[in-house]
């Protein structure tokens, strides 16, 4: 008769071993079911501000914008008192007119009225010459007939010679009055007029520098001076932030920087930015550095990194605010994550 089989005694695992097996099982399940998150680099938005100033000193006369305002290209920004420059400009314009008038005077010769006086004197001298010629003929006839002495005839000949010399003198004066000035004088006066023209241009430039306008559309970041305050030459009155000057600055570990190149597409993510912002890498630093303190990440602290800059398109640049923390990913990696 067969004896019934005895059941084996139940064996219990050690609690520590059971916990270890359970942890390994959970880790394996999580590893198999959860996809590893793609890598990203931390950084922040950076703005390259344009500091608008005047090369001339003066009192601020007007400020046409406010901080936070967006201005268009060529929009007036501020003006500085330009009274002295305007007076200098008027003086330079008067000096230019004087120099040009003198140059024109040398090119045209004497005035018509002055020429008419000389021509009248020439006509008078020619009449005196004709009279002296007739008198000489009469004296010569009388001397030949013995009615007058030869000395009278000689005096008449001398008078005729003097009249002819006077006619020649006045004829030359008329001709000279119609000629322009000497070539050297004309050249010197034209040079003086050109110098006066350059002085006027300089005065006009100084006047324009007292009024500054926006070179391109931009956001007014700060206004440093108010109406009535005195500004030194070159001291910024306000600062602008054009969209083209907004960029992302992030830091890539040295083992990853070799995979990046200028012009490579990346995407930028930030809190409140909405959809990722496409950008292109514009600069890769040539020297490494340690992760800056602004990157608040224990995992990236004290690592050797390279600074990389990327610029978004103009239509997306205004979505970034300088100093804002950013996450930057390669464009291909971001598309994989989205799928």
Automatic annotation (TrEMBL):
Location within or outside the cell: Cell envelope
A cellular-component GO term for this protein: cell envelope
Keyword Transmembrane helix on entry: no
Keywords for this protein: Coiled coil
Classification via Gene3D superfamilies: 2.40.30.170, 2.40.50.100, Helix hairpin bin (1.10.287.470)
Main subcellular location of this protein, as a coarse class: other
Name the record gives this protein: HlyD family efflux transporter periplasmic adaptor subunit
Species of origin: Duganella fentianensis
